[in-house]
Amino acid sequence: MPYPLTDNDIYQLNNDILPAFTRMKMGDHLGGVGQNPSGGADFFVDGNKSDDLGDGLSWASAKKLLASAITLANTYESTSANRAWAKRQRIHCTGDTLAEDLAILPRKCDIIGYGSHNANPMCCLEGVHAITTVSAGTRFINMRLKIKSAGGDIFTAGNNIVSGLEFRACVFDAHEATKAGGAIILGTTVNTRILGCRFEGAFSDAVIEIGTGHSPDMIIADNIIEGANAGIEINSGFTTTQWKSFILRNTIYTGTECINDAADKFAIIGNMAVTEQAKGAGGAGAIVGNEFLSAGNKIAASDLANADWPALGTL
């Protein structure tokens, strides 16, 4: 589900991520969030508040800082009396810009953006987020993650730090005088999903970078990706067993390789890839990967128009 979201997309997204959630208009959702169907808790963040003193349990008493709401959500999840281990919490965010550098994520929790960031839809989280505490099951939904003026990588997590991490219908914004390096840089992980997001601006490094090690069940699908360097870059030491991993239906326009799977482990299917460099042998200037796991991709380069990758075979 690509950015920007329509009202109908919001309806559908609510039903996709929150089964049995009552359909409602976005304005109704902002006015009074429906009951959490999992039985988990809801917390609220409003970056336009003057202080962080609220209890975070309603829009009227919202926290100013997302980090404070994350602390509340994790405390709730870990308190035995709440029996919240199998429930999902939700953090609802609005307020133009939340200027924070996150190091901790909420466990088994959705971070959902509302409202606007200046002329742009959705809530904006501006910062460099280097996650150092182990977390599972965090989902960012309809959030704009923007680099701050000093630059850097927008979101990083090292080996075995995150699992079940998802970004859905988010925007990663590299527009600053000092450009962002990359958008998402991950070490070993499991069950990662990057779905329907927009990556915009001249990222100076690979926009999405997956490191060495075992990271099964990864899906990167339906995104729009631009950057001055590479688009999706998979380290040669990447491995996966039992579960397959997929790069599906992305539209990518970058300065160098649009997709570079040096490990030859991903199924690369149905992508549109445009690179500003020459095509190279077999189209490798646009896509590098395992041709025997790939199908239905289109590529264009500085010296090539509208070609198939891999080249069409015969039965």
Note the beta-strand portion. 25-35%
Number of helices: 3
Poorly predicted runs of 5 or more residues: 17-32
Strand order of the largest sheet: 3-7-11-15-18-22-26-29-31-32
Structural class: mainly beta
Distance between the termini: 34 Å
Q: How many β-strand stretches?
A: 32
* Largest β sheet strand count, sense and barrel closure: 10 strands, mixed
Helix content: under 10%
Query: Could you say which overall geometry the principal axes of the C-alpha atoms support?
Result: globular
Provide structural commentary.
With 315 residues, the chain is mainly β. It has a domain at 147-309. It has helices at 7-17, 26-31, 66-78, and strands at 42-46, 89-94, 97-99, 109-113, 116-117, 120-121, 123-126, 129-131, 135-136, 138-141, 143-146, 155-157, 162-163, 166-168, 171-173, 184-186, 193-195, 198-200, 208-210, 213-214, 219-221, 224-227, 232-234, 238-239, 246-248, 251-254, 259-261, 267-269, 272-275, 287-288, 297-301, 304-309. The strands form six sheets. It has a ten-stranded mixed sheet with strand order 3-7-11-15-18-22-26-29-31-32, with no helix packed on it. A nine-stranded parallel sheet has the order 1-2-4-10-14-17-21-25-28, covered by helices on one side.
What features would you highlight for this structure?
315 residues; mainly beta; 9-stranded parallel β-sheet; 3 helices; 10% helix; globular
